[in-house]
Design goal:
27% helix, 285 residues, 33% strand, single chain, alpha+beta, five-stranded mixed β-sheet
Length: 285
């Protein structure tokens, strides 16, 4: 039987978020005692656990069919893979930072400076694009300490909250890349594997659509249907069902979490009662 192999980071937040996404798509991975390769119990998928910086090459070399990796790692490795879906988690940015005590007039500050980084390819592309000539010093590990020990004038590194920069008396001055987890694949898959991938993406998107959405059910006088429909447009239009009590209906729809309290207030104003709100697990279109 044809199986699709997906490469995922061995550990860390990206691993956790990736496994959660796969689980929410109804795919149960049997981890067991084997840590490198694990098969799904109920879907033709197996998971290959690798270091994040090995995933782009593993997909390009067809060791894995697809992979979940940070966009920054994909761009740094420049392997022959393509993004087939942005996943919206593990967000970060790649930024240039300099000592807090330095005045920063603009990107020309970096001309002639030494910059420490673990991402020389992305950094060089960014500097070339901005016509900056700088010395790129490639290091691994704690890049942020480089200016403090005299190893470099500045750094180019991943920034999430910025707390690491603050603790090392650095300030972020240029953002070169906004990154997130992406699903990558080679240019072509066999028809059988492409069909499995399409089904997996369909499931993932069903879960995505349900996030930050609420299912709402309410009772209202029949004469208020049009007023409530204007407030609750839903996916197409609200569902309306007659109640046993003459002149009353039950209405249901889907609303966005961010609009929740505003919509509830408007519904109460036009006479809605018995409002019931429930989370949504998946939305299938």
């Amino acid at each position: 039987m044809t199986q699709l192999r997906i490469a995922i980071q061995t550990k860390g937040r990206l691993n956790e978020d990736s496994m959660q996404l796969i689980g929410e798509a109804g795919i149960n991975i049997n981890l067991g005692r084997r840590k490198l390769l694990a098969a799904a119990k109920n879907f033709p998928l197996e998971v290959l656990f690798l270091r994040d910086d090995d995933i782009p090459q593993a997909v390009a070399d067809q060791v894995a069919d697809i992979g979940i990796v940070g966009e920054n790692e994909m761009l740094e490795k420049k392997e022959n893979v393509q993004i087939i879906k942005r996943l919206g988690f593990s967000k970060c940015r790649l930024s240039l930072a300099i000592p807090k005590s330095e005045d920063y007039p603009g990107i020309e500050w970096f001309n002639g400076k030494k910059i420490a980084t673990s991402y020389p390819v992305i950094l060089k592309d960014f500097l070339d694009k901005n016509n900056v000539q700088a010395d790129i010093h490639v290091i691994s590990g704690s890049v942020e300490i480089a200016p403090g020990i005299g190893l470099a004038d500045a750094i180019f590194d991943i920034v999430s909250s910025g707390s690491t920069l603050v603790s090392n008396r650095l300030k972020e001055v240029e953002v070169a890349l906004q990154s997130e987890a992406v699903l990558v694949a080679p240019k072509e898959l066999s028809p059988a594997k492409q069909a499995i991938l399409d089904e997996m993406i369909f499931r993932m998107e069903s879960v995505e659509r349900a996030k930050d959405k609420k299912y709402i059910v309410l009772n209202a006088p029949k004469e208020k249907i049009d007023a409530i429909k204007a407030i609750l447009p839903g996916m197409k239009s609200p569902t309306v069902t007659s109640l046993a009590e003459e002149g009353w209906v039950s209405m249901s729809s889907v609303i966005a979490e961010k609009e929740f309290w505003e919509i509830i207030g408007k519904l109460k104003e036009v006479g809605a009662q018995g409002i019931l709100v429930m989370p949504i697990e998946k939305m299938i279109f």
